[in-house]
Amino acid sequence: MTTPPFDPVSERDIEIVSAQLGRPARGVVGIAARCVCGAPTVVATAPRLPDGTPFPTLYYLSHPAATAAISRLEASGTMAEFARMLADDEELRLGYERAHRAYLADRDSIEHVEEIDGFSAGGMPVRVKCLHALAAHALAAGEGVNPVGDLALTRAEWSPAVCECADYTVR
Ligand SMILES: [Zn+2]
Predict the structure, then answer these.
(1) From the CA of 10, how far away is ligand 1's center (Å)?
(2) What pTM value is reported for the model?
(3) 38 C-alpha vs ligand 1 centroid, how far in Å?
């Protein structure tokens, strides 16, 4: 049994995440990465939402500046480039498969949900479909776990070490 890499979630975290998303945050079980200022950057969501819906995306990038930076990468053809790199580089491919298994292990340690068994996120283990999901996993797990997510973070014009947060005065 592994311990998933995230902090417990506070009411204030939920308020900030809801402000970031522009809708009430649902099923949040932890904060998997934070900005240097402490604001959530990646939320961990329950594998089954309160209404019973299976939810495969354990790690979700909630931070608007991070999300925008990753969207710019996706718009500039980076997913196709990373897919070519996966095709050409066996070490990267094996690392990506390990990332897939690590993702599933983290999620199963919260709750095993049969409907999404074997499905992780972002296109893992063989495709590159969503850099937001891959970057979120890389931020949650730390460098060296998701090599494609690490690459996306290296390329993105955003860093968790520089606060670009809005003023979350939502009280
Ligand atoms: Zn911040």
Answers:
(1) 16
(2) 0.94
(3) 6
